[in-house]
Design a protein that fits this description.
heterodimer, A: 109 residues, 5-stranded mixed beta sheet, 4-stranded antiparallel beta sheet, B: 114 residues, 7-stranded mixed beta sheet, 11 strands
Chain lengths: 109, 114
């Protein structure tokens, strides 16, 4: 079972930042936070991951709270192509991904 | 230069038939996976292979048999197909580095059993 809680859906205006929250209150010290997304009819796509420090790459930023019980994925300038289901996953090592229901992000023009 | 490819993309077949789905990765990864996404859109791990050896086998019927002829390929053979096998099947691959990994997924194979 997924160890994370995410809102079912969110809307974001095109060009604005999309902030997707995730609660993982039972995360253990050696578990990483991963974010993947699935655009309609495509395979899941890796976005970013982190352990305790904030991370940034060309796609997004990941902000992890100091107690590590929650995190936020930030898409700085959302486009229509960012419309997808976003999955927040906690996992240790190279174990298989356990997907929950995710957040359906709709970017609106 | 597709990283993880699957064939076929769509597969429609009758109950009771046997079918195979092929997966290939050109990333040089050691580990490959099969995931199943059912009609309710839940993605679940089925199998994981590392260097051609089975390391994870979730509760999957014996009718499903993965085969890894080499590190770059992981095929899924399904015997005696049932209606409930209708789903999208995703292959993925990864390379462990620093105690963790990033999985790269294929485009999926949509299986419809009639």
């Amino acid at each position: 079972d997924a160890k994370t809680t995410q809102p079912t859906s969110m809307d974001c205006a095109e060009g604005r930042a999309a902030n997707l929250p995730c609660n993982h209150s039972t995360i253990s010290g050696n578990e990483y936070v991963y974010w993947y997304r699935q655009i309609h009819s495509q395979g899941p796509q890796y976005i970013i991951h982190g352990l305790k420090n904030n991370e940034t790459n060309e796609m997004a930023s990941l902000i992890i709270t100091e107690d590590r019980k929650s995190s936020t994925l930030i898409l700085p300038h959302a486009t229509l192509r960012d419309t997808a289901v976003y999955y927040c996953i906690v996992r240790v090592g190279a174990t298989p991904l356990v997907f929950g229901k995710g957040t359906r992000l709709s970017v609106i023009a | 230069d597709t990283a993880v490819s699957q064939t076929p993309k769509y597969l429609v077949t009758q109950m009771g038939n046997d079918k195979s789905i092929k997966c290939e990765q050109n990333l040089g990864h050691d580990t490959m996976y099969w995931y199943k996404q059912d009609s309710k859109k839940f993605l679940k791990i089925m199998f994981s292979y590392n260097n051609k050896e089975l390391i994870i086998n979730e509760t999957v019927p014996n009718r499903f048999s993965p085969k890894s002829p080499d590190k770059a390929h992981l095929n899924l053979h399904i015997n005696s197909l049932e209606l409930g096998d209708s789903a999208v099947y995703f292959c993925a691959s990864s390379q462990r580095a620093g105690g963790t990994d990033t999985q790269y997924f294929g485009p999926g194979t949509r299986l419809t059993v009639l």
